[in-house]
């Protein structure tokens, strides 16, 4: 898993939001986590930054996607795995009611069912089919997450999450 690409970015409510996975610690990586950012493109400043990680190094988080609704709620979908957990589909949520730089604990919405063996040459690529989108009608989210179905097969699970109503 040597791929720190930014899978997507969105421009919402005057900000650029994006997420990517990172290798930790930077000097001698032993685990991966997910960083998400909210940037102000006019002032070129960071409005929010948060990291989803397991400091113990047991759980790995990778291949995130992010979307933000009109309220300012952000959903970060991600792949989750460990030595004791097959690759699973999960997400983490940041409500506009939460404090700055805060992410609620990740939730696994589809557990992996088997060990997964990655092939080279583009076959069985991982992370290309994880995505999140918000529904402009009701501001809910749709999370599309990959999970290990078999030793050389994966599948996509879809989760629908209702948004926190705007109380302002």
Q: Tell me the strand order in the biggest sheet.
A: 1-2-3-4
Give the mean pLDDT.
Answer: 88
Computed Rg: 16 Å
- Tally of helical runs: 0
Largest sheet geometry: 4 strands, antiparallel
Number of strands: 11
Instruction: Classify the helix fraction into a percent range.
Output: under 10%
What does the overall shape look like? globular
Helix/strand/pairing category: mainly beta
- Terminal CA distance reads 42 Å
The helix/strand order is EEEEEEEEEEE
Low-pLDDT sequence parts: none
Strand fraction equals: over 45%
Question: How would you characterize this protein structure?
Answer:
This protein has 168 residues and is mainly beta. 0% of the residues lie in helices and 52% in strands. It has strands at 9-12, 15-24, 31-40, 45-52, 59-68, 74-82, 85-94, 107-110, 131-134, 141-150, 153-161. The chain is globular, with a radius of gyration of 16 Å.
Q: Can you lay out the helices and strands and say which pair or pack?
A:
Elements: E1 9-12, E2 15-24, E3 31-40, E4 45-52, E5 59-68, E6 74-82, E7 85-94, E8 107-110, E9 131-134, E10 141-150, E11 153-161
Antiparallel strand pairs: 1-2, 2-3, 3-4, 5-6, 6-7, 7-8, 9-10, 10-11
Give a quick precis of the structure.
The chain is globular. The protein has strands at residues 9-12, 15-24, 31-40, 45-52, 59-68, 74-82, 85-94, 107-110, 131-134, 141-150, 153-161. It is 0% helix and 52% strand.
Q: What brief labels describe this structure?
A:
168 residues, four-stranded antiparallel beta sheet, 0% helix, 52% strand, single chain, mainly beta
């Amino acid at each position: 898993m040597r791929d720190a690409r930014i899978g997507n970015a969105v421009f919402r409510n005057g900000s650029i939001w994006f997420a990517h996975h990172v290798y930790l610690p930077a000097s001698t990586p032993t685990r991966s986590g997910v960083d998400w950012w909210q940037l102000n493109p006019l002032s070129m400043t960071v409005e929010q930054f948060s990291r989803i990680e397991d400091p113990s190094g047991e759980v790995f988080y990778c291949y995130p996607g992010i979307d933000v609704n009109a309220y300012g709620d952000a959903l970060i979908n991600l792949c989750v795995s460990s030595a004791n957990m097959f690759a699973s589909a999960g997400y983490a949520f940041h409500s506009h009611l939460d404090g700055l730089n805060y992410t609620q604990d990740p939730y696994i919405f589809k557990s992996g069912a088997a060990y997964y063996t990655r092939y080279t040459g583009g076959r069985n690529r991982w992370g290309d089919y994880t995505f999140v989108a918000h529904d402009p009608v009701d501001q809910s989210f749709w999370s599309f997450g990959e999970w290990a179905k078999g030793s050389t097969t994966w599948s996509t699970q879809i989760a629908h999450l209702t948004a926190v109503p705007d109380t302002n």
